[in-house]
């Protein structure tokens, strides 16, 4: 138990494969018995715990993040530029996720058991993109929270967070402290849930391998390759291109400046834990003023989740492919919209993307029972994905900080590098 979480999950996955193979051999691919039921229940309990934290975590995260902008006057020119960047970069990430997953099709023909029988005709699809926008506005926010109407929950939370910034100072501070405290409590609960992931992964892998066999991991290798392909396109092509077009600065400078923050994000899988390093690199190595960095980066650690948005889209399309369902235009539009909004509420903690992916699957009509085992199986190989996902999240935040600083007239970028490249006097 003293090992780091990702090593615990890896060990649980290996043990799960071994035990699952034993059950498959003994029961010839149709496992049963009280011992198998007991082990499989560990996975079910873990999935239920993940589902338990979704609504309060998303509400507290979004309201706290949006309200932290400050008073209403702060949501002016600087806020507009910052959120415009968040929107554009996240949208590009989502489109890349949809493109690579539709191109590679890692879920087509995948042999992954599902929680219950799936009938595509039972999925409630939106009538049109306009109806999706109408459905975003909940008639009763409390009912939306109790029924898991995620688009309504996200819309109301963003609206509430903005409204808090417009209230009187005394009320604003009271509400901010309440939602900050609630978010902190939900982070603690989520961390506890994630800490028992090895037991959940063990149960899920045993149940999956006992039914599907080890061919499962060939399928997952293609899934991992698809996700990482999307990540690399966004990290090495899209973000540098966006950076150069808006700043006219060689992106290599920025990669060098952000190396410490990227390594920290890669190893911790936490945007929040990396935030101090990100701010230090952006200010001291990239030359961005504290005024800009202290506004853009903390907000980005909560709101701007490029890697998470890409992962959610690709993951949901992968799930639909596993279930044998072809998503139409309105459903893919709904995935884009939901991923764009739910990325706002993806807390900067390890494996938060796995929690949030339930939101997108619910939005397009899949039940948690249908997708729970698939998402649990995806969690078993989530650590390498999470490492890249978090690195992209913080790198995108830092790119946004430089872009906003450039638009605000700042010019003192990468001063140390420029001095190092100046020719020395004879």
Rg from C-alpha positions?
22 Å
List low-confidence stretches.
422-426
Shape: globular
CATH architecture: Orthogonal Bundle
Percent in strands: under 5%
Mean pLDDT: 79
Number of helices: 19
Largest beta sheet, briefly? none
Number of domains: 1
- CATH uppermost class: Mainly Alpha
DSSP strand count: 0
Fraction of residues in helix: over 70%
CATH topology: Proton glutamate symport protein
CA(first)-CA(last) distance: 60 Å
Order of helices and strands: HHHHHHHHHHHHHHHHHHH
Helix and strand composition category: mainly alpha
Question: What can you tell me about this protein's structure?
Answer:
With 426 residues, this protein is mainly alpha-helical. It has a single domain (5-417), classed as Orthogonal Bundle (Proton glutamate symport protein), CATH 1.10.3860. The protein is built from 19 helices and no strands. The protein has helices at 5-27, 34-67, 77-104, 129-135, 141-147, 150-165, 169-195, 197-212, 216-247, 251-257, 259-268, 271-284, 290-303, 306-322, 329-342, 352-363, 368-380, 382-407, 415-421. Helix 2 packs antiparallel against helix 7. It is globular, with a radius of gyration of 22 Å. Mean pLDDT is 79; it is low at 422-426.
Quick structural gist:
The chain has 426 residues and is mainly α.
